[in-house]
Amino acid sequence: MFSPPAPSRKQDASETDLAKHDEEDYVEMKEQMYQDKLASLKRQLQQLQEGTLQEYQKRMKKLDQQYKERIRNAELFLQLETEQVERNYIKEKKAAVKEFEDKKVELKENLIAELEEKKKMIENEKLTMELTGDSMEVKPIMTRKLRRRPNDPVPIPDKRRKPLNYLLTDEQIMEDLRTLNKLKSPKRPASPSSPEHLPATPAESPAQRFEARIEDGKLYYDKRWYHKSQAIYLESKDNQKLSCVISSVGANEIWVRKTSDSTKMRIYLGQLQRGLFVIRRRSAA
C-alpha cells in the first residue's frame, strides 16, 4: 500500500515562521487600532473643551431652543396672569364703588325714614294730649316781687345752680295719660260727640297695650312670632293698610319694606306696644 512521504524538517520550519509572522502582524494591527481609537477620543475631548465638538454643538442648540421656549411660555403666562389680575382689580373696584353708593343711598333712606317716624310719633303724642285735655299743662306760679329796702344787700345770683331736667319718658307720659283717663271717666258721662266716643284707632287709644318683644332675631307680637322676610299687613293710625315684608329685625325695632314701592320703614317696639302700629299676618288678614 502506498503512503505519502513524511514532511521534511525544512518545511516544518517555514510553516512555523509563517505562523509567527501572522501573529506579529495581528498584534501590530490591534495596537494600531487601539492607538487610533485613543487618538480619536483625545481629539474629541479637545474639541469638547474648545466647544467645537459637533455632538456638543448639536445638544447645546437643542438645549438653547428648549430654554427659549420655556422663557417665551413664562412671559406669556405672566402676561395672562397680569391681565387677569388687572381685570379682577377693575371688577372689585367697580363692585366696591357700587356697594358704597348703595350703602350711602340706603343710609340716607333709613335716616329719612327714622326722622319721619320720629315726626309721626311727636304728632301722635300731640294728638293724644289734645284728645285727653290740657290737664297735663303746667302753669307757672305767679310770685309777687317786693321792692328792695335801702339797707338790704343786693342779691347775688347763684351761678353754680344747674338747670333740672323735667323731661319725661314716653312710658311715663303714657302712664300719666292712662291715670288721667281713669280719674276723669267717673266724674261726668261723655257725650256721643266727645273725643272719648270717637272711633278709636290704634294710635288714639293709649290705654290699649300689645305684648311685643324681640328674641333671637324674631319678633313676638300679639301671641305670634314674626321673622325676617315674612309677609305682613301694617295698619297705621289713619287706618291705612300697607302690604309689607319684614326686611330685618334689630334689637329694639324692626324694618319693613313696602311691596308697592319698596321703601323701608322703621317700627319701634314702643310703637307696637302702644298700638301706634298694628301688625297682621298677610295670610290671616
UniProtKB/TrEMBL annotation:
<keyword id="KW-0175">Coiled coil</keyword>
<dbReference type="GO" id="GO:0010468">
    <property type="term" value="P:regulation of gene expression"/>
</dbReference>
<feature type="compositionally biased region" description="Basic and acidic residues">
    <location>
        <begin position="9"/>
        <end position="22"/>
    </location>
</feature>
<keyword id="KW-0678">Repressor</keyword>
<keyword id="KW-0804">Transcription</keyword>
<feature type="region of interest" description="Disordered">
    <location>
        <begin position="183"/>
        <end position="209"/>
    </location>
</feature>
<feature type="region of interest" description="Disordered">
    <location>
        <begin position="1"/>
        <end position="22"/>
    </location>
</feature>
<dbReference type="Pfam" id="PF08598">
    <property type="entry name" value="Sds3"/>
</dbReference>
<dbReference type="GO" id="GO:0005654">
    <property type="term" value="C:nucleoplasm"/>
</dbReference>
<protein>
    <submittedName>
        <fullName>SDS3 homolog, SIN3A corepressor complex component</fullName>
    </submittedName>
</protein>
<keyword id="KW-0539">Nucleus</keyword>
<keyword id="KW-0805">Transcription regulation</keyword>
<dbReference type="InterPro" id="IPR013907">
    <property type="entry name" value="Sds3"/>
</dbReference>
<feature type="coiled-coil region">
    <location>
        <begin position="31"/>
        <end position="132"/>
    </location>
</feature>
